[in-house]
Amino acid sequence: MPGLSVPAGHVGALEALARLRPRAFSSLKQALDVEVPKGRPDVVERAGGIFAKGTAAEAGQARALIDALTGLQSLRTWRDWSAAEVGELLGGSSSLKLTADQRTTLASRVATLLDLGAVRLLAKATDLLTEAANVYHAARIVTDVRPVYGATITETPVGAVIVHSLKVEHHTDGEVKSFHVAIETSDLKKLHEVVVRALDKASALESWIHATGIQYLDVVGE
């Protein structure tokens, strides 16, 4: 069975996981063995504290590792694979530059981590958050001035208008797509009001969740 293709942003973290010393991996496993984490930042911090002690890993790779594990867990659920099958497929990936022994180690470690509560719950929460046909990726607004000419276009413009172009990128069918919308300054103010209102509602709902005693899961983090 061919190995999995690994995104470039996850390669370094997975290779570092394969090279972690056994004691460091045991500490990593213990740090992630929580049934209900506070969210992605909490899990990343737990992993980062261990990764910083690994001889072949950097603390900055912790987020990439958690992203890789949650992605693999989602793939596992979708394909109905066991944790061992995912580990075996990842160990055989041509994207990773590892020795045969390191590939075996990686397969075993990934299989172990995928069965931990923090990884499973975070993956499930992420899937629920992104359960939509189009998922936001990024946005940018380009603002420029357009001159307005009078009857004679060879003469100096008689006025000018400010034009904004809103570009929204989104994930659709596994690809990043985008669309552009021309928007006026007055509309930007209205859009700002809508965003502020949504943030206020999110803050109120977060407080309500805490009041119920249920753990609010910060899936994305800052």
Give an overview of the whole structure:
A hairpin with a 2-residue loop joins strand 2 (159-172) and strand 3. The protein has 8 helices and 3 strands; from the N terminus they run H-H-H-H-H-H-H-E-E-E-H. It is elongated and about 80 Å long. The chain has a 3-stranded antiparallel beta sheet with strand order 1-2-3, with helices on one face. The chain is of the alpha+beta class and 222 residues long. The chain folds into 2 domains: 8-129, no CATH class; 135-212, no CATH class. The chain starts with 7 loop residues before the first helix and ends in a 10-residue tail after the last helix. The longest helix has 28 residues, at 185-212. Helix 1 (8-19) packs across helix 6.
